[in-house]
Amino acid sequence: MRLTRYTDLALRAVMRLAVMGGEDLLTTRQIAEAMNVPYTHMAKAISHLQHLGVIEARRGRNGGLALTDPGRRTRVGELVRALEGDRETVVCEGDHPCPLAGACRLRYALRQAQEAFYASLDHVTVDDLAASPTGPVLLSLGRAPD
Ligand code: SF4
């Protein structure tokens, strides 16, 4: 099972924000630079995360992005399901559909395996991802050296 790059960079944004205190905000550009992701790709993922209620934009002179409280408690499996959509692990239809597509035991088994993969990620919350040793590294990203 391989995640799309889009899902991975959205998770990078979530992790970067998870180490911030409640009042400390970041801009999309700061997150993109810290996580080594093109700005336009990060902006698209952040817009999706806002739509999912995981991230919120706070306005004001020092405005920026923060995780919402429910976002911080979100289970990673639930988040990955939402980001990946209904993508299957194999492409059975399309321009050259597989003749077994309507009645394939392998397809069913792969769906079961995919669900087990997501379920195992449901044991981890977004907040858990920011614990040590990842947290200190996340905090150091995008900072000028002392
Ligand atoms: S063999 Fe089954 S899983 Fe593989 S492409 Fe065909 S329908 Fe899909």
How would you portray this structure in words?
Strands 1-2 form a two-stranded antiparallel ribbon. The chain has a single domain, classed as Winged helix-like DNA-binding domain superfamily/Winged helix DNA-binding domain (Arc Repressor Mutant, subunit A, Orthogonal Bundle), CATH 1.10.10. It is mainly alpha-helical. The protein has eight helices and two strands. 22% of the residues are buried. The structure holds iron/sulfur cluster. Iron/sulfur cluster binds next to helix 6. One of its GO terms (cellular component) is cytosol. Its cofactor is [2Fe-2S] cluster. One of its GO terms (molecular function) is DNA-binding transcription factor activity.
Summarize the structure.
With 146 residues, the chain is mainly alpha-helical. It is 52% helix and 5% strand. The longest helix is centred in the C-terminal third of the chain and has 17 residues, at 105-121.
Radius of gyration, in Å, reads 18 Å
Number of structural units classed as domains: 1
Approximately how much beta-strand content do the residues carry?
5-15%
With strands numbered from the N-terminus, the spatial order across the biggest sheet is: 1-2
Helix content: 40-55%
InterPro entries: Tscrpt_reg_Rrf2, WH-like_DNA-bd_sf, WH_DNA-bd_sf
Organism: Actinomadura craniellae
GO molecular function: DNA binding; DNA-binding transcription factor activity
GO cellular component, one term: cytosol
